[in-house]
Design goal:
The chain is an alpha/beta fold. The protein has helices at about 35-40, 65-70, 85-90, 110-120, 135-155, 175-185, 200-205, 230-235, 295-305, 325-330, 340-345, 350-355, 360-365, 375-385, 405-415, 435-450, 460-465, 490-500, 515-519; strands at about 5, 10, 25, 55, 55-60, 70-75, 100, 105, 160-165, 190-195, 210-215, 215-220, 260-270, 270-280, 285-290, 310-315, 335, 420-425, 450-455, 470-475, 475-485. The strands form 6 sheets. It has a 6-stranded mixed β-sheet, sandwiched between helices.
Length: about 525
């Protein structure tokens, strides 16, 4: 299989096979060609060269619908559910004809029964009659996984579908990851699965065979029993993973540094209550907790994306004010959201346009309001080089970039403004190991320059490795403050216990506090 875009090769002579009842793991850096390969298999884009066979016969779907009808289903890297319709409508979207009477009436009772049977078979406690948006992002991801895995058999009667899973667990919380693993192990009996994931431990655990893509070529085929994360990382990125993956040796002790960001009494009904903390210049303050802990909602409140009901923030000693993003941006605050395609960028626009999105009026326009296009292009080109963004140039549309390169564009938007404070919500979600390492190095570099960072993440190792202090949240409150100096990092087990234990009384989360109280 081969494919080029604009004369740039994306896939070059890729050969691979998937046997019955087999789970294939496919790994590679962002931009290695994994998603393009999935797009060809699922009929979204045609190949330039190469052939495919399905169950021994020719296979060349002209559309995603045709591929689905032939038994190839898919979970996309970004969620493809419609949030404001009911769960059963999402599960059976495009299959309504199977429930039509006389071509006029839809048998909703039958649709609900089928959809509920799918949820029960997947082991999900989901009421399919409820609106999809009533479930958490993690639960919606499980709904989408169940749809891809079970609808081909339940509705189309296909007894051995091929299921393509593109980063299916990047948005799952810990408890839902276990549900996913059980589902995959049940599906082995009647499906073939191709799993793309940047979670290398997951790939090693679930796969029967692992294929490694690099720069559009298949560079290795591995037996999971004879590989480990370090081997996979080396094949993917062309170098061994650094022992100091999180650059902990560069962690800055900010005890004597002035405050970069101060939060006082921030509250929003039903999401978080009475949040107060101080972030020193150069300090990385991590936020951990379950998906319903309120940590992401707090991040949006502190940035003024979704203004809180009460409370104030202050940057670098400025007068406290109610957080509103358009007021805080000129003062030096930046915010990177967890869902880059929905909240982080406009994918149909160019990298240059997205980079200047945060505030062209004060960065890319003259005092007379004239837009400086040449400056916008020049700055974008500089960050394409500095962050190793795989793009042909500033005018590349972001939709054509891989997920990791899109994330770098979102980061570049704030870096070009020399921020004083950055709020990062899951900055490496859906990003490969090589790009993660680059982002971690970038975070350390910003810290060394005195940028205060609020790091909100579901990745426990990332939380531990990067943070000076860790705020554990439960039910919208900070319930533990855990010190995480470079020489004495807490363990994953400790943090999980804190996240699940009965919460103690709320704590003061300032820079200086009693260590005994924190632990």
């Amino acid at each position: 299989m081969s494919k080029s875009f604009g004369g740039v090769p994306v896939l070059e002579d890729v050969d691979f096979s998937v046997s019955r009842n087999q789970v294939i793991g496919m790994v590679g850096e962002n931009g290695a060609g994994k998603t393009t390969l999935f797009n060809i298999i699922s009929g979204i884009v045609p190949a330039d060269a190469g052939t495919m066979e399905l169950r021994g016969g020719p296979f060349s779907p002209a559309s995603y619908g045709e591929a689905s009808a032939l038994g190839v289903s898919r979970v996309f890297q970004e969620q493809a559910l419609i949030p404001n319709i009911k769960v059963y409508e999402n599960l059976l979207l495009s299959h309504e004809a199977a429930y039509a009477r006389w071509g006029q009436l839809i048998d909703k009772t039958g649709m609900i029964a089928t959809a509920q049977r799918v949820m029960d078979e997947a082991g999900l406690d989901i009421d399919v009659r409820l609106p999809t948006a009533s479930y958490s992002f993690s639960k919606r991801q499980l709904i989408e996984i169940a749809r891809a895995c079970l609808i081909p058999t339940e509705v189309l009667g296909l007894h051995h579908p091929v299921v393509l899973l593109d980063e299916p667990t990047s948005a799952l919380e810990k408890s839902d990851e276990e549900v996913f693993r059980r589902l995959i192990n049940r599906l082995r009996d009647h499906s073939s699965i191709v799993l793309v994931s940047h979670r290398l431990t997951e790939v090693l655990e679930l796969s029967d065979v692992i294929y490694v893509l690099k720069d559009g070529r298949l560079v290795a085929t591995l037996d999971p029993d004879e590989a480990d994360e370090r081997i996979l990382h080396g094949l993917m990125v062309g170098r061994a993973r650094e022992a100091d993956f999180y650059h902990e040796s560069e962690q800055r002790a900010p005890d004597e540094a002035p405050f970069a960001f101060q939060v006082t009494g921030l509250s929003r009904s039903g999401q978080y209550q009475d949040m107060s903390l101080e972030v020193a210049a150069g300090e990385v303050v991590g936020f951990g907790g379950l998906l319903n802990s309120g940590k992401s909602e707090f991040g949006k409140g502190a940035a003024g994306i979704v203004p809180p009901d009460s409370g104030t923030v202050s940057l670098s000693g400025a007068a406290p004010e109610r957080p509103v993003i358009r007021h805080l941006t000129p003062l030096g605050l930046g915010y990177v959201p967890a869902e880059r395609l929905h909240e982080g960028l406009i994918s149909g626009f160019s990298a240059a346009w997205n980079l200047s999105l945060a505030g062209g009026a004060d960065t890319f326009a003259t005092s007379m309001g004239l837009w400086q296009t040449q400056k916008e292009v020049k700055v974008t080109q500089e960050y394409i080089a500095a962050l190793s963004i795989k793009a042909r140039g500033p005018h590349d549309v972001c939709a054509t970039l891989s997920g990791g390169n899109q994330q770098k564009v979102v980061l570049a938007r704030w870096l070009c403004r020399d921020p004083r404070v950055l709020i990062l919500d899951n900055p490496t979600r859906g990003v490969d190991a090589g790009a993660k390492e680059e982002i971690y190095k970038l975070i350390r570099g910003l810290s060394s320059k005195g940028v205060g960072i609020l790091l909100i993440t579901d990745d426990l190792l990332e939380l531990i490795g990067l943070s000076n202090r860790i705020m554990v949240m439960q039910n919208g409150r900070i319930t533990r403050v855990v010190e995480a100096p470079a020489h004495a990092k807490p363990s994953e087990r400790e943090l999980i216990e804190y996240m699940l234990s009965q919460a103690p009384p709320p704590m003061n989360a300032g820079v200086h506090h009693d260590m005994a109280a924190a632990s």
